[in-house]
């Protein structure tokens, strides 16, 4: 049965945003609305912004009067596959798409908002691009995005709002109005990276030194560089950190992540710190950076995990570095009662804090 009140998809609106708005507009909870459309499919335990699978589309098209082509366009799959360069499996983390870290209906994070965009909307709604992991600022307002409630620090989970809440610009736990949030400036270099990455996503190829590489190769190189920055920040006295610091790339500071979580799971502050470092390296030039690595005697093993293959575009430069820093690997025997290092303790504390953000299942 079609809904009494039609709810069009707004420009650049994400699928979860539209589903929540559609529910509130019909005067019901998001969970009740989706339960009525798909009685046997629990959509809020998955990342519904990615896509609505074609086999699930019919009841939604019938109820909303919106075509399946429009829903497909609002999903993230097409953009994410351009970025990844291959077809993405439903069960995996998608590169450069913020992960929700869902457990049942609770989440750890993964949704960002611009408070000023929401304040200007006549019907507040979430934009697709706020889900990209390289987005840290609003391109219209020049402010930093927010990825948690400023008051209670809960992740932004509009699907947990209820019918009485009426609009989605609020915290589902403490009902803080996000439109009143105090905005800060994004880190300028992280924001420049965002502008650059957005431009790359619009085209097919991206400039790389004197040549051009495919869009997917560009994002894979950027991921590789994020990994390099994380490795350098873990070993601030290593030749790699020394080389990067000599180039003025800020790899040693307290905003760098210590948790070891995938980039797509990191909070905005840590992603901003990493992207700042990557942007600075890219603006110096990857060639120049590798010349410095050679001068500081950085080994390939310092840059990446040898079990993973590095981006093709970087192979010629990687081949200039030397391999095998310590000779053949010997197994280190570690006593069971060895005290954990301070770093290991801080990393597990950061992971625990993230888990604690999600409430017990309701
Ligand atoms: Zn904005
Ligand atoms: Zn809150």
From TrEMBL:
Residues 6-145 form the TniQ domain. InterPro entries: TniQ. It comes from the Bacteria. Residues 321-332 have a biased composition (Basic residues). Pfam families: TniQ (PF06527). Residues 333-344 have a biased composition (Basic and acidic residues). Residues 320-344 are annotated as: Disordered. This is TniQ family protein. It comes from Vreelandella sedimenti.
